[in-house]
Amino acid sequence: MERRTALKIVALSALAPKVSAAKAAAHGSMESGTAWTPEAYKLEFFTEAENKLLDGLMEMIIPEDSHSPGAHAAHVSLFADLMVATSDEATKAHWKKGLALMQVEADKSSVAEALTHAAALAGQPASELGRFFGALKEMTVNGYYTSEIGIHQDLQYVGNTYLSAFPGCTHKEHW
Amino acid sequence: MATELAEGGAKVVLLEGGKRVESSQMLAHKWPYELPYRGLRGEKQEPYYQGDVKESVRYDDSDDVGVDRIRVLGGRTIHWNAVALRYAARDFRERSLAGIEDDWPLSYDELAPYYERIEQMIGVCGNDDGLEILPAGKHYLPPIPWRCSEHILHRTLQGMGIPMIPVRKAVLTKPYDNRPPCHYCGHCMDGCDVAAVFCSATALLPKALATGNLTLRQNALAREILVDREGRATGVSFVDQTTRKEETVHARIVAVCCATIETARLLLNSRSPQHPNGLANSNDAVGRYLAGHLGTGVQMYIEELEGMKPSNQDGATDHAFIPRYNYLFGKRDYAGGWDFQVNFSSYMFPHQATMLAGYGADFKARVRQMQSGSLQMGSFGKVVARPENRVTVDPNRKDVSGIPIAVVHFRFGENDLKLWHDSNQSIAEILSKIKGTVFFEPGSQPGGFASHEVGTVRMGHDPKTSVLNRYCQAHEVKNLFVTDGSAFTTSSEKNPTLTIMALSLRAADYIKEQRRRGDL
What we know:
Chain A is mostly helical. Chain A is built from 9 helices and no strands.
């Protein structure tokens, strides 16, 4: 866990990058009153080939299972495109190079084996492929669990609503 | 302050650097996928950081701390977790009892009636738990019931002799003062759309405006406090943020409540022949003694709760609180202590997914299974107030209004680091007694300040080493008052807001009394 998570959660907005209202509106948002749709989305950063590779990798990280659809159905690669397109140049370069490295690995064997290889290097900060796996997984997690599929179908989250009372724990065996 | 004075009959002009955010503009209930960047870039709080407030500060020779300077009508009370704690009697006497820092120039007993009043004005839920370290009020609203994870934590702490209590928060658990109760959405920090969380803009300002004595001037960013030949305050010059025009308002008394960093900035930027070093700063104390909170977050997943059917756990974020307890277990080789807030964020996002190793179907299933077992704790620890930790201004770097920006210089000290290491050991010990998966990597340095920075315009008995007297009145400028976190003589582990509000009420009473007597 990243250190100081508590403080960061409490003071989130102080640490978050500033959002350009115009940029945000262009992507469909509360300002424009339009909902973001994957069909209308045009890639801003990745090429079609990169997006295809990314989509495949993300689906392997969070795949469809008998319980719920995975990262592909949740269009997480398009979320990644938007996030990277609106990041700094170093982040953009990291993603370009990372995907290129993954493609090289995949060409040697398969995309699945390339991901296995990258994941095995994840704890090694000197490994560019390992560092990219960290960024790739984080983006997949962030994109999937903030999507309609991730929140409602997979986690079956039932909050963010109006309750007249909070019941608290009704399982006295935990008291 | 504004409400108290307006209700007392004074003509008050309130200069607010930001503007009102209506409840219809709040984004608290938006789903992540309805926001442009899924809320991951602070979009929900973005309306509260108006203008160039984020850019008008820089850090110089500082540890990893962040100061939070919100700009919106209502200030920090629109964007807070509403934990409302009284300082204990011992927190005002660090020099006498712990041999560090300075004693405050007032005691708990002197402030207690104002704590009682402010708690009734804003509505605080909780209990009187009979703890000397966390004095209680007499008029709390019912506490919020605990979640299962909080009962399990309580059970564990009981076995260790560590008290855990219902949190005391300025969140309504029943209708109060024409405000509705909490609807338990878990978005306290994003702005409360129904005003169940206390916010000065919705709970107090309407009352002040109803008196007819208050003129509210929004988008009015203070540049400097003006003075007469004798060095007394005569008013404030400000820049209208919509027209960029410089304007002036005159006043018999000026009260500054811009929060710790901005208040120091304003005073330091108020230079004149009478106050060449900044207003009320002939002793070079303004900006110094910057303190706040250090802390660490930890996330665990309790095995006996994993795999349960999803249920609505959001609530009002924290429902339980662990007051400072280290003094119960013998003398330490440092001063001060820490407390813990528990389960302080919404349950929507599965934090375990960012920390759990692996990927694929097993990873996805494990994330799902762990979700119901979530337990989150965060420590807030005391930071010692030291003169070398300070706020200055940079005359060479100005904001869009041409006002020199604030510069923060801060390093943690030896006492801070000892306290932090001890708190981390204690977290690890507590959680080791609960069966489950713990994610805890405190790193090598603490983080700060969690928006709890205090102390740059401190109170004190001695005009040589402090800026304000015991009524938050400047030693050098009798018609200048400062009633925000900057007035704190020292920081404790407790959240500062309730004490800020109590000090403000006390200062308002003092102003009214002095005016009646003709002394001000």
